[in-house]
Write a structure and sequence with these properties.
- By secondary structure, the protein is of the alpha/beta class.
- The protein has two domains: 228 residues, NAD(P)-binding Rossmann-like Domain (Rossmann fold); 142 residues, N-(1-d-carboxylethyl)-l-norvaline Dehydrogenase, domain 2 (Orthogonal Bundle).
- The protein is built from 16 helices and eight strands.
- It has an eight-stranded mixed beta sheet, sandwiched between helices.
Length: 385
């Protein structure tokens, strides 16, 4: 069977391609409706020519990705919600607030006008915090190009619905009767190191291989390596659930515990993440990859980790509200801890580290008491899954 003859398997959370009604001489931008020759040309155009990309979110990560893409020669718009912040980016040709020291290409256009940012863009990169993703995406649906690729670069779970970010996209696409191709980009990748061109490897997951390989080619450089996967839910859960574990690792460091403790938290944290992920339909192999173990190790040990920093300050005795008020950027792990805890309750999955983090963050439990509660549990066999 040729590529053109294959059909996309039905999926309850994925809008299926519609019959091509394009009667003009222009080829459709939906690769599912193209014949083999047209599909080859489509992938070639996406990977070798300048593409029009909107990066939504002018924080450190959104700016780093916008810089990477514009430095590759793509036409990139960077949207920020604050006109004052956007004006400063344009004036300085640099995001001094969130990513100082990294000049941006003259061709990168920063704007606070969402319609302008999305105009004629065939790829959308979502890099806003998880708690505002739905609100922002609701505004995007009326401006987006039909069947655009929508990449989540946000590592979180919506508190109210317990949906991952691509599930939020799909929910809003259904309600607005629009079509798009959701994907997720995740892995061990601090924004400053990506902006500096330090060798980095990440994974992109999409339901269909064509979308994943297209994104792989869009982002890939000689320092930013991109692997592909079909496990979208696994990659999203790995990226989101590692953040509460990173807070725990920070608490351990703040309390003055050693590397033995941190190693135990990382390892047993991975076991918890994998248990919930598999229960929700993810592949266990995803959690041993870049978006699982790789991201977990980075976030639990890296000095640039916001979530580890929150934990470290908690371990030193600072109140959570003061810590968050003093932070310039969002630490997703605080909100994700609540979402993940509710997911674990719903799926009846045992996650003792997550449970203690939830009590520390939301019930004002002492960090030292939480550590004692973890160690005082009944003894277990390690390979119990």
């Amino acid at each position: 069977m040729s590529l053109a003859e294959k059909t996309v398997p039905p999926h309850p959370n994925y809008p299926q391609p519609q019959t091509n009604t394009n009667t003009t001489n222009q080829p459709s931008t939906n690769p599912f409706s193209l014949n083999t020759t047209q599909q080859i040309q489509y992938i070639y155009d996406m990977t070798t020519h300048s593409n029009k990309i909107a990066v939504i979110g002018a924080g450190s990560w959104g700016t780093a990705l916008a810089k990477l893409l514009s430095d590759k020669g793509h036409q990139v718009s960077l949207w920020g919600h604050s006109p004052e912040h956007v004006a400063a980016i344009l004036t300085n040709q640099e995001n001094k607030r969130y990513l100082a020291g990294f000049p941006l290409a003259d061709t990168l256009i920063a704007t606070s006008d969402l319609a302008e940012a999305l105009d004629d863009k065939n790829v959308i990169v979502m890099a806003v915090p998880s708690h505002v993703t739905r609100t922002v995406f609701q505004q995007i649906t009326s401006h987006m190009t039909e069947d655009a690729i929508i990449i989540s670069a946000t590592k979180g779970i919506e508190n109210e619905s317990l949906l991952t970010m691509t599930q939020v996209f799909l929910d809003e696409l259904r309600q607005s009767k629009r079509h798009g191709r959701p994907a997720v980009l995740s892995g061990p990748s601090f924004a400053k190191e990506v902006a500096a061109g330090i060798p980095t490897a990440v994974t992109v997951a999409a339901q269909d291989k064509e979308t994943a390989t297209t994104i792989q080619a869009l982002f890939g450089t000689d320092f930013f390596r991109v692997y592909t996967s079909s496990d979208r839910i696994g990659l999203e859960l790995g990226g989101a659930l590692k953040n509460p574990i990173a807070i725990a690792a920070g608490i351990s460091d703040g309390l003055g515990y050693g590397t033995n403790t941190r190693a135990a938290l990382v390892t047993r944290g991975l076991a918890e993440i994998t248990r919930l992920g598999v229960k929700m339909g993810a592949s266990p192999l995803t959690f041993s990859g870049l978006g699982g173990m790789g991201d977990l190790v980075l976030t639990c040990t890296g000095e640039l980790s916001r979530n580890r920093t929150v934990g470290y300050k908690l371990g030193k005795g600072q109140p959570l509200k003061q810590i968050l008020d003093d932070m310039e950027m969002v630490a997703e792990g605080v909100k994700t801890t609540h979402s993940a805890w509710n997911l674990a309750q719903h799926h009846k999955v045992e996650m003792p580290i997550l449970d203690q983090m939830h009590q520390v963050l939301y019930d004002n439990k002492s960090c030292a008491v939480a550590v004692h509660a973890l160690l005082a549990r009944s003894q277990k066999q390690e390979d119990e899954f």
